[in-house]
TrEMBL record:
Pfam families: PLAC8. The chain crosses the membrane at residues 85-104. Keywords: Membrane, Transmembrane, Transmembrane helix. The lineage of its organism: Eukaryota, Viridiplantae, Streptophyta, Embryophyta, Tracheophyta. InterPro entries: PLAC_motif_containing. This is Cell number regulator 1.
Amino acid sequence: MYGADGHVGYATAPGFQNPSPAPPPPYAAPYVVQYPGGTTRWSTGLCHCCDDPANCLITSCCPCITFGQVAEIVSKGSSNCAVSGALYTLLCFIGLPCLYSCVYRSRLRAQYDLEESPCVDCLVHCFCEGCSLCQEYRELKSRGFDMGIGWEANADRQRRGIVVPPGVAQGMTR
């Protein structure tokens, strides 16, 4: 049967209304991965090593230097750059520096609420050690740390940066 508007449907008697069609199903958003706790993205990608060519070169030649710098900042000075770098070098001789360095990647992610990407920390360090050290270095640098001066000097800079400016008298007086 045809309705009053010319479409196929049910005919109704005068004084009766057509039953309304069922409402469309609610819109379902596409599948989105939400990170627990509202994690944030890294400031640079894992393979963007050449964003900082000097660090890329140093990390390629001597990753213990970059690791020591990252470890000192992430541990907030509780581990010395030289000691961390030396321990990293010793672990290189048995082929397991990635087990040591992935711990600091996890700490860095926890401190800044960074997403665990592209995969779990230990896998990133085992298969992309140089790239992961460069990414951690760039992340700390983008957060305002001067990686060459260590934790104490960075903490001192931050303390001096929080100084409240002196009050200024309002109005124009001579």
